[in-house]
Specification:
By secondary structure, the chain is mainly β. It has 6 helices and 25 strands. It folds into 3 domains: about 10-190, Thrombin, subunit H, CATH 2.40.10; about 195-285, PDZ domain (Pdz3 Domain, Roll); about 295-380, Pdz3 Domain (Roll). It has a 6-stranded antiparallel beta barrel. Strands 13, 14, 15, 16, 17 and 18 form a 6-stranded antiparallel sheet that branches. About 40% of the residues are buried.
Length: about 375
Amino acid sequence: MEEEKIPAGIGSGVIVSAEGHILTNAHVITDPRTGQAIDEVTVKLADKRELVAAIIGFDKATDVAVLKIDAPNLPRVSLANSDQLRVGDVVFAAGNPLGVGLTVTMGIVSATGRTNLGILEDPGSYEHFIQTDAAINMGNSGGALIDSEGCLVGINTAIYSRTGGNIGIGFAIPVNLAKSILVSLVEKGNVDRGFLGVNLEDIDPKAASNLKLPSPSGARVSSVVANSPAEIAGLRENDVIVSLDNQPVSSVAELRVFISRTPPGEPIRLGFFRDGRRNSFQVKLGRLGKDPKADASPFPGLTLQPLNATNRKLLGIPKTVSGLVVTHSKGEISSLREGVVIVEINGSPVSTLGEAKGLVNRGLNRLYVWYRERYSFVPYRIP
């Protein structure tokens, strides 16, 4: 029998919370053959500690992934406001290029808001990169782009090069965008994006003149989706959106990013031109795409994951145990804490969230669980 070669690679990441959450790139922790998360991630810290990381989740549309490690006295970086970056600001790129170890290079912000580069291949991707001439090489992906005060402004992601080496054109995901993905994955287990409900076009000089705009900047509403937040708020065809919560909007791509990083249900102030006059009003965003409840745990207060090599090693779960592991609990039932494996629901084995949803009933449910080498029955009531 021929041995299957398992791909391995290196990348970088940055610890952003005292709880051990790490930001990196989705392409660093996914298998290029399948597009799925790899089985195991090992994190090596600057102090030589090596830890197995749990994959909390990843988002291919932004190339952001979130990992988590458990260890005492973890260093962490403070987050800056990447919307305040300006061309010419001094920045430092930190990472593990070519596996040589922690390396820091210096450069400046060459541009902000770079879009339509074709770096992200996922349909509907959100490209809004910081461009820098700080040296970025293979292995730097997922590493930190830091400002002169030592705060995180971006996640290094890609370079433009004909040779594969650095030529001073590197790109990083703004930390404000990465932070919105982090919060959504940690708190909800999925990426929850805002939805406005408009079709948009960029503004050229001719359109700016026809629409009586002061400059060819913004996003023109070409149509409004029926019963959408935009229609309810009163947006109309040919309105030109120029700001969101006082943040200037120069293009359709920029508006998409700003909307996507705003949670559903959150009110935003939209600035726009109508018939040559500046207006603004508040809009309460809807939810983009499918209802996140479709991928949510069927048990209120519990976050569940199918067992894999990473969470087995992290939580000490042997291969003989099968089921769904509790990765987060709000604590309503103390016996269903992190590391508990739900083996059966109402007498039937379970290994996926889809199976769990089909087995759970309203009222009292009987769970057969494993925890620290012991099996037991636990009642769980669904209101």
